[in-house]
Design goal:
Layout (H helix, E strand, L loop, with lengths): L2 E3 L7 E2 L5 H14 L16 H19 L6 H25 L3 H7 L8 H8 L8 H23 L37 H13 L3 H19 L2 H19 L11 H19 L9 H16 L17 H4 L9 H9 L3 H19 L2 H15 L11 H14 L8 E2 L4 E3 L1
Antiparallel strand pairs: 1-4, 2-3
Helix pairs in contact: 1-6, 2-5, 3-4, 3-14, 5-16, 6-7, 6-8, 7-8, 7-9, 9-15, 11-13, 14-15, 15-16
Amino acid sequence: MQYNATLLKAPPTMGIVASTYDRLLMVAVLALVSGLFFLSDDHRFGLAFLREVTIGLSLMAVAYVLILKKDEMDSVDWYLLVMVGLLFVMPPIFAYLNFHQPLQYGFLEERRTLLYLLYFLVMATIGGRKGYGDGDLEVILKYLFFLTLAWSVANAFEWIPRNSGFSFSVRAEQFAEGFVATDERFATRFMEAGFLVTLYPYFLVARGQFLKAVLPILLLIAYMLYINQTRGFGLLIVLIFFWITVLRRRVDTFNVSAMAVVPAIFVLGYMAYLLYAHAFGKPVIFYDYHRNRELHILLGETLSDFFMPHGALSLQFNEGFLSVYGINIYVSDIGLAGLLFKFGILFFPLAFLMIMIVYLLFAKYRNDFSIILMALLLASFMVAPFGDFLGRGTEGFALLMVLVRLQGVDHEHKYIACVRRGRAS
């Protein structure tokens, strides 16, 4: 039986099992683009410029698709391109208009957003390979899980030499000789690839393989307690497991239109609470002293300018927000208030674009990875005050889009989508 499959649109399902080479190829591709080996935020872990090279290759993949494969793009692909374009272009423009920051600083600051385009890079890379079955995908994710754990442990115990000669911190004294951190998380909290280490446990729970998931979940807990130690990320993981458990039981009856209810309830609820705290000078209960200072500054600026976008300043330009407000501010760390400061009223259509991408994929496929992607979206809105979910976690979002397409449309795990371009049997 012969057929023609497309690169980006939903291909026909085929029960093809990948070869060992195809599995290893997928492991290598996902590991390289996942952020596992990217330079960490404090510059001490990972490979310098790997993120930038990956972004460049992703842009080339997008150009290839738009020039040669444009007719094969699905509606979700266009939504993604529009969202990425706006996320990348808007902050530098508004930072230029509000703070006179040269555009090149803004674009360099926002380059992480382009990692959404990894979706096109991976799809183009595996477009000529055979299909991947459920068993293949499980093996691939298992390899990646243990690879991520091994890499993280090796970095945490300094079995892999840390980068020297350059470092980054909002407070220079943290890298002064003899500095003793009061925060026990300091040594490893900036390590990358948090998403990759969660994907295998998510997959097992989404498939209902709870006994098989026990050991990976225990190892994930140990990773969070002793290596990552980021409380907001830990809460996100718990909520994702909760939503996966709920959605997998209702995958065939769940009304995807209802998914907009959770973002609306939580975002509007948080907004009401933050406005109350700002209006009456109250501290926000889930923020520390410094976060509360930053929230009141950013929310005050947002309200005084009638929710007009401000963009974000780069520390590479005039010490960033320090030169404006006398305080180091990361809009990505202040969650919803930071998003409203950065994008203003335009935050809402941007969030709607992300919702539509997940809506279309879940409505069309309803497989294990679409469940995980839906759970990620819902959980991200539930923890909106704790981080910028539009600009962070881009690699995870992009790779889940790839895996949703790879697994195909049958939730009973009998068949799998083949992404081979051309003719096959």
